[in-house]
Amino acid sequence: MDSRDSILASYGIPNIPLARSSNGGPNRRTTSGTIAGRTTSKRYSVTALYSMAAEQDVEVEDELAKAQKRLRELKGRISAQSKKNFVLERDVRYLDSRIALLIQNRMALDEKQEVESHLEDTDPEGGTFPDDRRLQQYGNLFFLLQTEPRHIAALCRLVRITEIDTLLQTVMFTLYGNQYESREEHLLLTMFQSVLSAQFETTSDFNSLLRANTPVSRMMTTYTRRGPGQSYLKSVLSERINSLIEHKDLNLEINPLTVYEQMIKKIEEDTGSLPDHLPRGVTPDVAAANSDVQSIIAPRITMLMEIANSFLQTIIDSIEQVPYGIRWICKQIRSLTKRKYPDCTEFAICSLIGGFFFLRFVNPAIVTPQGYMLVDGIPGKYPRRTLTLIAKMLQNLANKPSYAKEEYMRMLNPFVEVNKQRINKFLLELCEIGDFYESLEMDQYMALSKKDLLLHITLNEVYNTHALLVQHQDVLAPSEKSHLRILLDDVGSAPIQVPRKENKTIELPLFSRWETPIQDLASALMSDNSVTQNDILYMETKSIFVQIIRSLPRVAGKKTPDLLRIAEVAATAKDATLVRKGIKVKEMLRELEEAGVIDRKDGYRLMTEEVGQELTHLGNLREKVKEEIRSLEAVFKTICDHNNYLRSQLDSYKAYLQNVRQQTSKDSVGGPGSSVVKVGDKEKKPAKMKILGPYKFTHAQLEKDGIIVESNVPENRRQNIYFNIKSPMPGTFIIALHYKGRDAAILEMDLKLDDLLEKQQDNVISLDLEYVQLNVNKILSLLNKTFSKRKTDAFGAWSKLCLPPCVQYPFNGSY
């Protein structure tokens, strides 16, 4: 099997030959675009190769070349910034999930260090590189993973849900991180095809397909957050959403119970009292039956449907702007559904496609536009609710509506009924796109000719992927002869993760251990018997003419180029590079004429026409490139703004952690009620906090409320026992057991809120105070009830002392 065939086989593409000559001899070209004796293949051929070279000519410095260079740089920056944002978002999610524990300082030391490490920046001087031998082994391994996506596809199905985000970072933003480079994008989509195919094969329940929170669904959501998806959402939804949120006071709530409560609140504010026929605490049915509520809701229904219809029309009109990858995934969902469920209705197929396109892609941006940087700031209360209702309406339109939890949404059924056919037509049209296998074949072929194929990857991405591969190698590569198993055996066991500060980004050279690098792509195509020497010569001649004309402004604007004159102008130019090209192309014209491929008598008509067509294409391409640059500059700004937003969140966490450390230091040096805190060698008086309490509770009262679960106090003395509870500082409580007639307490216990919460989390039921046993949950409830009512709220004050507004959590007695 030659190198081309093995590439195709690695990702399941049928081996269809490239264009071949019927007899291997000279081929005379005709004006119809065919070569005498055969029809040009639809597969990518050397023609496409030289056309691609003309588009991205590094030797030419015309306006197109400069614009393309700018575009490539911009795409690279977007890809790199998208990865940074993904990492930051993951850190913020992690800290959000842990912050409730940190509030009360409930973590062990190693856990605290782990959380704090998420706020450390990578030290560019720190870390160690793998040695050259190990780098080569990893280069072989990651080239195999990148070019044979089936391995990554299988791994994504094997990992736990807790491991998927780290793996997705490597897959989506590193291994296939160049989001605008066709080869990497198409390889990533090939991986999706494998993952989706397996998902359809292993899922028995049609209704749960692609809807559960699985690694596969997480993958699909993450894919939509890449640059092209963000660009689409920005261009299509931003204006529509911003025009809506300008109406801050537009209340379109249609939940009858909420509308009823808002109505009676307004009446009470206006009149100072409520009529008897408008009681509080009514049921949803009673609220829905109220005639005033109905009259309020009716015009809102009409307006909601008008707004939703405008969103829908905008989305339908944008079908040509939907990124190719999004549409291709929709196409795979349709194809796999038809294959697995041949009797499936069109409605059911559209429901699955809509589940991806709306549920995973469009609706999250509508519900939280600030998270997608579609708006400045956070929408107000009413617009936010309206956007949520719009998203629900679109989801009900794309899926089978379910009103189990929100019966009131039935009022919007006319929107679904009127637009169902429209949305199904749109979802099916999303699937109407071509495949990419032909271009991927050439991209893969060209990748073997590159000597600088690099992967920018962090050490921990390398080590984490390595560890997962080793963990699942018996499933991924059961045969000892498989390439993946051989490479894993070579590289050995996975190193442990390095500390975050040492997690450097390295340049990993990628190359195949089994494929011979192609030194000359054209010669390789010839050796594969795909094209003849004359094909190569013809295309190279045409390519050089395009280069010369692009470098000579005075001839570039002419519609019908005179090839002989252009070659002579170049050969006599002052520029040495042009002279070499002019002399070379004159010799090439002579060789082609001797071979009978072109004819001077007709003015090299076919080549003249093809050069003219190429130049027209490049002229149109220049405008497209400039337009794409303008669009992507806006996307890049949006991504950078989002990065700044995420960094500000992390800065808030840093400030919070600093406050926690200061509070811990204060407690450890002076203890509760301490009058001094050591700062270096000096003593400094802390700001005086107001002591809350003491509040008195009798033994009988606490026993009745179930707070005392067991008492060692003799029955005849319990009536003389009482408890004083005070809070000398936020989060700290002193419970003192007293006997009537005695000034001093019999017993005092210093309680930390975090200790109580930790006991609650560990399901510890009782707290031993020597004379009595207290129920942990109920004493927490008592403390909350007693102190949260005070103006200087012991819970809230401590929270506000340590936390920025964006991460304050209400205390409710349990987590």
From TrEMBL:
GO terms for cellular component: cell cortex. GO terms for biological process: negative regulation of Ras protein signal transduction. Residues 57-84 form a coiled coil. It comes from the Eukaryota. The keyword Lipoprotein does not apply. Keywords: Coiled coil. This is Ras-GAP domain-containing protein.
